[in-house]
Amino acid sequence: MKIEVLKSKIHRIRVTEANLNYIGSITIDEDLMDAVNLIENEKVHVININNGERLETYVIKGKRGSGVICLNGPAARKVQVDDIVIILSYGIMDFEEAKNFTPRIIFPKETNS
Q1: Would you tell me which of 35, 38, 72, 89 could form a disulfide with 22, CB atoms 3.0–4.6 Å apart?
Q2: Is 90 an annotated catalytic residue?
């Protein structure tokens, strides 16, 4: 049996930009992506702590070391700059494998680093 489990989590990070006039996605600093094992175009869930909004989108690489977290396209309507969000991704794996799997989770500083 295969199950879906938490793979990556960026816990409580600040939104730095919201760009309505873009085709969609979330731009994430490449250092943060590496820290939680996210790749470009990977599907993520974004949960806004400030207003309870939840959305799904995909990742675009942001400038390394910039701390950028930018919701693009329609998702920009669900956040404000300085909102705090949680970014999650999931993986599908064998049930027995999942019992021993440890997700990559980070707790960024206020500067998004």
Answers
A1: 72
A2: no
Is 22 marked active-site? Answer: no
pLDDT tens-digit series, residues 76-104: 999 999 999 999 999 999 999 999 999 99
pTM, whole model, 2 decimals?
A: 0.96
Choice among 8, 22, 58, 90 that is catalytic: 58
How far apart, in Å, do the first and last CA atoms of the chain sit? 38
Active-site annotation holder among 8, 22, 25, 113: 25
The tokens 């021993």 sit on which residue? 100
What is the CATH number for 68?
A: 2.40.40.20
* 29-64 b/e (C-beta count within 10 Å ≥ 16 → b): bbebbebbebeeebebebebeeeebebebebbebee
Range of the domain at 10: 2-96
- pLDDT of residue 110 exceeding 90, the answer is no
Domain count, the chain: 1
